[in-house]
């Protein structure tokens, strides 16, 4: 979506705070999908340090980054992933960009 330009500058401190408050419990402190809640989930949690996470998925024409932005805003089911991934529609474009900066740093 044009609303979420991936070229905007990410704010590392904001991204880290968002990740810690909204993502780390499932995705883990270092993005490996090993957060404290991950074992309780039905689906395997995304590991952002895995190179396969950053390649195109079968059946989806959008880039991995666009897929992640959509999952953040609309939840996992919106990108054919787990319904257990919640949506965060209240995050604005800058917050999503800040969060994406953190996810990219896990690569």
Relevant terms:
107 residues; mainly alpha; 0% strand; globular
Give an overview of the whole structure.
The chain has 107 residues and is mainly alpha-helical. The protein has 4 helices and no strands. It has helices at 12-22, 24-27, 64-74, 93-105. Helix 1 (12-22) packs across helix 4. The longest helix has 13 residues, at 93-105. The protein starts with 11 loop residues before the first helix and ends with a helix.
Count of DSSP helices? Answer: 4
Q: What amount of the residues lies in strands?
A: under 5%
Rounded to the nearest angstrom, the radius of gyration is 13 Å
**How many beta-strand runs?**
0
Helix content: 25-40%
Look at the structure and give the mean pLDDT: 89
Cα separation of the termini: 23 Å
The major beta sheet can be summarized as: none
Class from secondary-structure proportions: mainly alpha
What's the SSE pattern? HHHH
Can you tell me the overall shape? Answer: globular
Fold blueprint:
Blueprint: H1 12-22, H2 24-27, H3 64-74, H4 93-105
Q: Summary?
A:
By secondary structure, the chain is mainly α. It has helices spanning 12-22, 24-27, 64-74, 93-105. The chain is built from 4 helices and no strands.
């Amino acid at each position: 979506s044009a609303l979420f330009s991936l070229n905007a500058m990410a704010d590392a401190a904001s991204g880290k705070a968002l990740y810690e408050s909204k993502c780390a419990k499932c995705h883990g402190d270092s993005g490996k999908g090993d957060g404290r809640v991950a074992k309780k989930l039905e689906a395997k949690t995304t590991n952002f340090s895995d190179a396969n996470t950053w390649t195109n998925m079968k059946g989806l024409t959008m880039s991995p980054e666009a897929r992640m932005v959509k999952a953040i805003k609309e939840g996992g089911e919106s990108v054919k992933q787990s319904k257990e991934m919640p949506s965060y529609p209240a995050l604005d474009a800058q917050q999503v960009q800040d969060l994406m900066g953190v996810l990219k740093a896990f690569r």
